[in-house]
Amino acid sequence: MKFSTASIALTTLALIKQASAYSALGVSYSPYTDDGNCKTSDEVASDLAQLTDFTYIRLYGVDCSQVEYVLNAKASSQKIFQGIYFMDQIEAGIETISDAISTTGASWDDFVTISIGNELVNSGSATVEQVSSYVSTARTALTSAGYTGDVVSVDTFIAVIDNPGLCSISDYMAVNAHAYFDY
After folding, report:
1. Residue 60 phi, psi (nearest 5)
2. 154 found inside a domain
3. pTM for the full predicted model
4. CA 137 distance to own-chain centroid
5. pLDDT tens track, the chain, 183 positions
6. Which CATH number covers residue 94?
7. Range of 99's domain?
8. What pairs with residue 143 in β-bridges?
């Protein structure tokens, strides 16, 4: 069976609305179109208008002006769980976030957490020691930029179980729990 992008989007939105009725508090957001290009500010605003029931919006990176666009479009009650995806661009990512805050008139209070990397140990991209170094580098740069909130690394449930050293790196444990894939 083949589904159109529109039918998938509508089904997803319906499921999101249904989930929000059961106190689902967060949603991951992607700033990309179906063909992989960056969404416009208006497209991001249109998407976020459908997500007002969610308290937290997770962004995995800082490309595509997504930080600026989401800061402009989110409801005042919403907070961003902001990711920095590329470990060789930690400082540049923090600068992008700071610039978006300045451009939009927002503040660091609009961010509930800054995550450094995503599933780095699970994917074999980094060791626990490397993740610790990345988070430490980010925490120092974020403090210098004026951020005082939580800084975390995110990995899979299985990676954390197999690598308990991940537990001491973050301000709290942030895991991607995949009911289907984590077996």
Report:
1. -85, -20
2. yes
3. 0.84
4. 18
5. 454 555 555 555 555 555 555 454 899 999 999 999 999 999 999 999 999 999 999 999 999 999 999 999 999 999 999 999 999 999 999 999 999 999 999 999 999 999 999 999 999 999 999 999 999 999 999 999 999 999 999 999 899 999 999 999 999 989 998 776 665
6. 3.20.20.80
7. 26-176
8. none
